[in-house]
Structure formats: C-alpha cells, structure tokens
Amino acid sequence: MRDRFRELIKKLVPRGSVVQQAAKGGVWMTMIRFLSQGSYLLMLLVLARLLSPRDFGILGVALLTLSAMKRFSDVGINTALVQQKAEDIDEYLNTAWMLAIGRGVLIAVVLFLAAPYIARFFGEANSELTAIIRVIAFSPLLSGLQNPAVVYFQKDLEFHKEFVYQTTSSFARFFVGIGYALVSPTVWALVAGFVSVSASKVVLSYVLHDYRPRPSVDRETLWELVHFGKWITGSSITQFLHSEGDDVFVGWFLSATALGFYQYAHRIADMPASQFTAVISSVTFPAYSKLQDDPAALRDALLGTTRLVAVVVFPVSAGMALIAPSFVPVVLGEQWTPMILPLQLLSVFGLLHGITRYFGGVFNALERPDYNMKLDTIRIACLAVVIWPATAQWGVAGTAGAIIGVYLFPMFPLDVYAVSTLTRAHPLEILHEYLYPTVGSAVMFGTLWYAHGLLDVTPLFELLFTVPAGAVVYTLSVLLLDELFSWGIKRDLRYVVAEVQS
C-alpha cells in the first residue's frame, strides 16, 4: 500500500510538457482548495452555531480595513516574479523580501494608529473593534517575513509543495479557531484563527524551501518590480473597491449585524464556484505565461479552460440557489434565516464571478494587467450609481441585486470582449462554451424545483435529497448533451486524466 501511494505521488509531481505540468498542477490545486477552503467553510459552519451574526460582522469590518491597506499597497511582487520568463529569479528575491517587509511594517503601523477612528467610522467606537483591528494589523508583517522563494512553487508549477504550504496553515486556522471558540465563544475565536494562518506560513516557508533571504536591496531590481507593479497596484485598488466596496457600504450604511449576514451569504454563495475557478486560475496563470508567444496554443488553452470551468460552475451556483431555504436553518440555525434571500441572489453573482475570475490571470500573463484596473474602474462607477438607492429600498438584498445587475451589464460583455481580443478567440466561441452547461443546469433546477413542489418534507430531508439528486440529474444531462451534440467535454476530461497520469 505504501509503495502504491509513493508511486501515485511520483506520478503527480508536475513534470513533462506545459500541458502535463498544468494538468498535474490542477490535481494538486484542487486538493489544496478542497482541503483549505473546505476546512475554512467547515470552521465557519461550526462557529455559526457558537457565535452571533454580529461577531462575524465585527470581524468583517476589521478584515475590510486590513484588506483595504493590503490592496492599496500591493505592488504585485509575486505576480511579477511568476511572470518573469527567466527560470532562475534568485537575484530578485532579497529585494522582494525587503519590499514585502517594508510593506508589512507600514500596514501594521498605520492600522494600529488608525484603529479608533476606523471603529468610529463604522459606528463601533465603544466596541472591541479597535483592539481587533490592532491585533490583525500584525498579520501582513508576519506575511512579509515569509521566505520569498515560495514563489517558485507556482512559477515552476511545483504544486505538490504548494499543497503542503497551504493546507497546513489552513488546518492551523481550523483547529485554533474552533479550539478557541469551544473555550471562549467570542469574536476572538475568529481573530485567533485568522492570525494563525500568517504565523504558520512563516515557519512553513523556511521549512519547505532551502533559500535564505538576506537584507539587501538592488536598485535596478527594485525599480523593475515597482515598474511592473504599478498596474497591479492600480488594479488591486480598483479590485478592492468593486469586490469589497459593497461590504464597506453595508457596514457603514446599515450595521455590523447586517454586514455579518451579507458577508456570510456572499462567502457561501461565491465560495464553491469561485474556489474551483481559483484552482484553474492558479494553474493557468504560469501556464499562460509560458504560452504567451504561441497565440494558437493560448487560444485553445483559453477555450478549454472555459469549457471545464463552465461545466462545474453553472450547476454549483444553480444548486446553491435551490437549496438555500433548507441549507440555512438546518446547517447554520434559525438566527441566520434573514440571509436566505441574499444567499439566493448572490448565487447568481457566484456564477458570474466564477466564469470570469480566471480572466485576470490571462491579462497578467499577457503583460496587460492594466486591463484589470480599467475594467474594475468601469464596474465601480456603475455600482456607485445604483448601490445606495437599492440598499436603502431593500436592505442587503438590494445590495446583492445591485452588484448582480452591474455584473450582467455592462461588465460581463466587456470582460468577454477584452479576453477574446487578447487571445484572438472570437467572443461567440467563449459564449458557446456556456451553452451546454446552461441547458444542463436549467434541466437540473427545473426538475428539482418541480419535485420540491410535490414533496411535503422537513428541511433536513429536502437538503439531503436535493444535493445527490441534483448531481445525478445534471450528470445525466451533460452526458446526453455530449452524446447528441458532440460537445467534447468527455474528451477533454479524458485528456486531462491522461496528462495527469503520463
């Protein structure tokens, strides 16, 4: 048994052609996301029973301030290093390390001093929010101390090392967060779990790679990194405003409790689809970087990626919208029922986000990170027009509706047009890859919706019935569509499996 396990691991070590490395990397990244995000989701589900929505909202406010500082100071160090065509980037690492440490110190100092004013801005001047912000402010400082050579895990497609790096820190968060909550069920359980991730990664980064950084800075290297990162910085700022600006608005305009409902619904609705896409994106970014001089191969890779993403994201998002009324009371408890409608609405956002999330990796790989910033700027401007009246009228459900409306038009057509232009794929070729998953998901949704109308059962039974039944109906629909219209999804899956095993 041990020999078979070692042989399996040996086969999965990414080597061979770019396609083979990407395919094997995809297996590792799937395991990483399944274990790390799965453990995170499980922790949130457990803590939802022990903590209140307000506790999640308070931490949400603190993390929003940290995220803002990180985004506004992001110079894209890792992105720049991965994008480098040179295999050996050791000459960049010392400078990158010092840049990361300096950024961490800056964030920690600013947040520590600004914490009382931030708490007052969100109407929490007399709460423990100030102390929480000051504690999590040290997280980016810890992140800056990490061994910069961990970037090789992605650059060289060594995702088996990335697996250990990511999952170990995720398990630390899981056990620390739940362990703390069992002893003291307060918001500090969430804080402890969050900080444990950064602390464990510092240790792991030096255990997993033998490179040892030194405190030195090369001016030419520093200029090169900063010059590349100017668009990453701009894109990071606009990405924060469009992806978390709605959270900031809800926390300020409504309350921390409303933010707890909104963020929790947002996280659950978006996590399944977007995390799968994140697997694809983390693998395809270095792969696209290696294919940037081969337009035909790049176009084929994009269409193949789109097909694989769509076949998973569409049914997952449709299923989430369907099971929300039974999932929330059964899994989270009755105190979370106000988030059912936002969860259903945000499932549509999870779909749109999932099928476009990897586009940013394409832009970066093709040395056009400015596309991310420009598209995000349009998105922010559109959202700014509608979010206030929608939230004032319908609360967090109105906020969810606003971001979905902006995503549907004009952003989705613009995203598809931009990525198709860069990769020389016709927009209709990309949209065509969404056709069959849409049909299969509609069949699944309609069948189960009809079945729900015929059944008079408890929410628990409904939840247990819907998930496996939906998987069966969708799988049969996909197989039938592939057989009738020569879709090609079975061929693609066999190809991926063959590349992994080679």
UniProtKB/TrEMBL annotation:
Protein origin, superkingdom: Archaea
Matching InterPro entries: Poly_Biosynth_Transport
GO cellular component: plasma membrane
Keywords: Cell membrane, Membrane, Transmembrane, Transmembrane helix
Annotated compartments: Cell membrane
CDD domains: MATE_tuaB_like
Keyword Cytoplasm attributed: no
Keyword Transmembrane helix part of the UniProt annotation: yes
Signal sequence bounds: none
Membrane topology, as annotated: Multi-pass membrane protein
Residue spans crossing the bilayer: 94-119, 131-151, 308-332, 344-366, 378-396, 463-481
Similarity comment: Belongs to the polysaccharide synthase family.
Protein name: Membrane protein involved in the export of O-antigen and teichoic acid
